[in-house]
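Example for tutorial group B:
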């Protein structure tokens, strides 16, 4: 059995997200807000985590508690997922409903074409988990 990579995430009182290690070795990030403090903390964590990316990974971003996704957050996510180290990562983003998913797609449509990770947006957590569970060579 492969040993799980350390999470290297420390909770902070002024940020609205938490991170846990998934059983498949990836991470589940659950957001409750997208304040500037949360976005800055997450972006730094994401970029640091990419530095040590040495294997294929599945990450789930659970944004169902966030009713509105600001354009700034979408652009920061696109930036992190454009890093060449993200090429080994499959990212499922789960949002509150289809209208939020459509809004993200409209802002990110052109920018997502240049991302290194495989990313898909869902309004259903079960569909996201099923997509993440597919073999990593089937994207």
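The residue assignment follows.
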């Amino acid at each position: 059995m492969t040993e799980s990579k350390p999470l290297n995430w420390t909770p902070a009182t002024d940020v609205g997200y938490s991170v846990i290690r998934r059983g498949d070795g990836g991470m589940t990030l659950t957001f409750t807000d997208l304040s500037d403090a949360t976005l800055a903390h997450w972006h730094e964590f994401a970029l640091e985590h990419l530095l040590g990316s040495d294997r294929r990974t599945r990450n789930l971003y659970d944004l169902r508690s966030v009713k509105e996704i600001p354009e700034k957050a979408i652009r920061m996510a696109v930036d992190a997922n454009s890093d060449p180290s993200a090429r080994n990562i499959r990212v499922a983003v789960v949002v509150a409903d289809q209208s939020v998913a459509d809004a993200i797609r409209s802002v990110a449509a052109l920018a997502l074409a240049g991302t290194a990770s495989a990313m898909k947006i869902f309004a259903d957590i079960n569909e996201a988990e099923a997509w993440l569970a597919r073999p990593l060579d089937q994207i």
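The longest strand covers residues 57-63. Compare this with the pattern of hydrophobic and polar residues in the output above.
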